[in-house]
Design a protein that fits this description.
By secondary structure, this protein is α+β, with helices and mostly antiparallel strands. The chain is elongated and about 70 Å long. It has 14 helices and 9 strands. The strands form 3 sheets. The protein has a 5-stranded antiparallel sheet. It has a two-stranded antiparallel ribbon with strand order 1-2. The protein has a two-stranded antiparallel sheet with strand order 3-4. This is Lytic transglycosylase. Pfam families: SLT_2. It comes from Acetobacter okinawensis.
């Protein structure tokens, strides 16, 4: 079987309890001084970018030494080799489905309004919400400022996380969030949609429009932000992400994959057929993926599948979003 490596991050790490106790991994007064010097440089750069001195001071006061828990999570992510079938069983559990049905039913009107406003399917909104934060119940308990500062100082991608730290300071000022209330994953992904600060600045939206986007507590803002993200990445209104298909085992794996987009008529000629009914009438072409190879599940995926991948560039993730969204909306 074809296998895919998956680094467990995101939702798996949202289970971590809040941890503020830390020790500087480099040890001693010299290490403390080096971290203080690093923070002073961040503070100067942030003020130079227009962030107020009061916001900078309040935020950076939350981090006095690199957070060991953050570094451990970053450096020791368990690597698993999962098939699609194993991944699906893990992330699309019966509990995830049942919780989703209940959550969507309670918010059906709000989801419908935002779906109509942005032209993005309710299923995609609900599926991302479910996978990213278990319908808003698991957003992470790390201080985003502390986590990003730690990774910017001593992480594997220091320049990336320094840029995200500076953007997080802008978010504090723009969103009016109390620095201590900006919580997220060990890697700095924030709120119910798990936006990095750069994504917040680019895609966060309020509903109704005009206010500050609160992606931690305001579900209208959460759904509007996810919808705005997908819409600006090219979501095609009224079209599906994909559907399950039967594929003859004789069809070579080399003819499959996201890049192999062909007319639906061509796929029919190869013996590909939907599991239920006929191909969706709103689309004319697609690509067939069979993640686990011959004998495994297969799907024909359309343009919107690739838009979901803009949120997280994984076929497994996009399939899970699509299937979860279809099941709970």
């Amino acid at each position: 079987m074809l296998r895919r490596k998956l680094l467990l991050g995101g939702s798996a790490l949202l289970l971590a309890p809040p941890v503020y106790a830390r020790t500087a991994p480099r040890g001693g007064h010299a290490a403390h001084g080096a971290y203080a010097t690093f923070l002073a440089g961040v503070a100067r750069e942030a003020r130079g970018q227009g962030v107020s001195s009061s916001v900078v001071a309040q935020a950076l006061a939350l981090t006095t030494a690199p957070n060991v828990k953050v570094l451990q999570a970053d450096r020791h992510q368990p690597e698993f080799t999962l098939t699609w079938a194993q991944y699906k069983d893990r992330v699309l559990s019966e509990k995830k489905m049942n919780d989703g049905l209940a959550a969507v039913q309670q918010r059906s009107g709000l989801l419908g309004q935002i779906s109509n406003l942005y032209g993005v399917g309710r299923g995609a909104l609900a599926g991302i919400w479910g996978l990213e934060s278990a319908y808003g119940t698991r957003m992470g308990k790390f201080s985003v400022i502390d986590a990003l500062a730690t990774l910017a100082y001593d992480g594997r991608r220091a320049s990336f996380f320094r840029a995200e730290l500076l953007k997080a300071l802008h978010v504090l000022e723009q969103a009016g969030v109390a620095p201590a209330g900006m919580l997220g994953s060990y890697a700095g992904a924030m709120g119910q949609p798990q936006f990095m600060p750069s994504a917040y600045l680019r895609y966060a939206a309020s509903y109704p429009a005009g206010g500050r986007a609160d992606i931690w507590h305001n579900e209208g803002d959460v759904f509007a932000s996810i919808a705005n993200y997908l819409a600006r990445c090219g979501w095609q209104a009224g079209q599906p992400w994909g559907e399950g298909v039967f594929v003859p085992d004789t069809l070579e794996q080399s003819q499959l994959g996201r890049s192999q987009t062909r007319p639906l008529a061509w796929w029919r000629q190869q013996g590909v057929r939907p599991r239920v009914g006929d191909f969706n009438a709103s689309v004319s072409e697609g690509a067939v993926i069979r993640p686990d190879g011959p004998g495994g599940e297969a799907f024909i995926v359309y343009h919107n599948f690739n838009v979901i991948r803009r949120y997280n560039p994984s076929d497994f993730y996009a399939l899970a979003v699509g299937l979860l969204g279809d099941a709970i909306t």
